[in-house]
Amino acid sequence: MRVLQLLLAVLVILLLQGAPDTQQCRNSRGHCRRLCFHMERWEGSCSSGRLHCCR
């Protein structure tokens, strides 16, 4: 049971680390996606580098 609690704590920390990148992307009118569409530009990364910030 203690192992599950530790894994949950690590997961929450990892999710919270990606939050500022995601919020910064949204503040610049971008969207976090795996791939940008052909009319969008890649502006940075979201979720600790797993997604692209597309505008």
Automatic annotation (TrEMBL):
GO terms for biological process: defense response to Gram-negative bacterium; defense response to Gram-positive bacterium; innate immune response in mucosa. Keywords: Antibiotic, Antimicrobial, Defensin, Disulfide bond, Secreted, Signal. Transmembrane segments: none annotated. GO terms for cellular component: extracellular space. Residues 21-55 form the Beta-defensin-like domain. It comes from the Eukaryota. Its main location: cytoplasm. Pfam families: Defensin_beta. Residues 1-18 form the signal peptide. It is found in: Cytoplasmic granule; Secreted. One of its GO terms (molecular function) is CCR6 chemokine receptor binding. InterPro entries: Defensin_beta-like. Belongs to the beta-defensin family. This is Beta-defensin-like domain-containing protein. It comes from Junco hyemalis. The lineage of its organism: Eukaryota, Metazoa, Chordata, Craniata, Vertebrata.
